[in-house]
Amino acid sequence: MKKKDFKQAKYKVTHLFKLVLGLLYPLRCPVCDGIVLPFGEKICTECLPKLKLITPPYCMKCGKKVKEGDYYCPDCQRYEHLYVRGRALYDYGSVATCLYRFKYGGRREYGDFLGEEMARYLGPFIRETGAEALIPVPLHRKREKKRGYNQAKVLADALGRYAGLPVYGKYLQRVGRGGPLKYLSPEERQNNLKKAFIIKENDVKLKVVIIVDDIYTTGSTVDAVAHVLLEAGVEKVFFLAVSCGAGV
Ligand SMILES: [Zn+2]
Ligand SMILES: [Zn+2]
C-alpha cells in the first residue's frame, strides 16, 4: 500500500472509530449538558451563542471586563501582580454552570471544547507572549484522586494540542492544604497559598510560560504559582483562564 493510501485508510478507520465511540458514548454539551446536537459536534448549535466572549474593553493586566475608558480593573489598580498579563475567554455568568460541572461534576469531556475555543480566540495573545510552555495550576494529590482529574490539566492538554504548545503537567506540585479559597479573606488566601506550590522538575529550564486555570478570581493563585516560577528562573509568566470570576 502506498504511503498516501495508507494515510487515507488510517484516517477513515480513525473517523469510523470516533463515530462508533460517539454512538456509544455521546458527548455532553458544555452548556445544556444534554447530548450534543447535531451529532458529532462538541456543543449544540443553539447553545453556542449562550457563551459570551469577553470583548473589549477589558483590563490590560488580568483581562477582566472594565468600564469604557478604563485601562485596569479596580483590583489591578490596587494590587501589583507577579505575572505580566493574562486573558480569559468567557464572561463568568455565561459559563459558570459549565465550569462547575467541568470541575465537580465529572464532565472532563468539556475540556476539549474549552481548550479548542481558547486556542481559537486567544491564539493571537498566546503567540504574542512568546511562551514556550503551558503550566496548569496543580491540584493537591488527594483532591485530584477524589475528583479523578485536575480540570486545569485537562484544559491545558486540550489547549496545548490546539495551540501547538507543550504542557508541563508535572513541573509543579501542590503541597499546601488547598482548601476552598472562596471562604477566605485576601490575606488568608495569600498566606495559605504562599507555600502551596513547589517545583518538581528542577532540570527543566523555561523562560516564558503561560499558567492555565479554569477560573481567575483575585489572582492570588496565579501570583502564588508565578512566585515559584520566577524564583526558579522563569523570566516571564502569563496566564490564561476560561473565565474571570466575579467577586471583585
Ligand atoms: Zn446544548
Ligand atoms: Zn485587572
Could you characterize the architecture of this molecule?
The protein is an alpha/beta fold. It folds into two domains: 1-49, no CATH class; 51-244, Rossmann fold, CATH 3.40.50. The protein has helices spanning 3-24, 74-78, 92-104, 110-129, 141-147, 151-163, 186-194, 220-231; strands spanning 86-90, 133-136, 172-174, 197-199, 208-216, 236-244. The strands form two sheets. A four-stranded parallel β-sheet has the order 1-6-5-2. It has a two-stranded antiparallel ribbon with strand order 3-4. Strand 5 (208-216), helix 8 (220-231) and strand 6 form a beta-alpha-beta unit. Helix 4 crosses helix 6 (151-163). The longest helix has 22 residues, at 3-24. The termini are far apart. The structure holds zinc ion (ZN) (2 copies). Residues 59, 61-62, 64, 72-73, 75-76 line the site of one zinc ion (ZN). One zinc ion (ZN) binds next to loops.
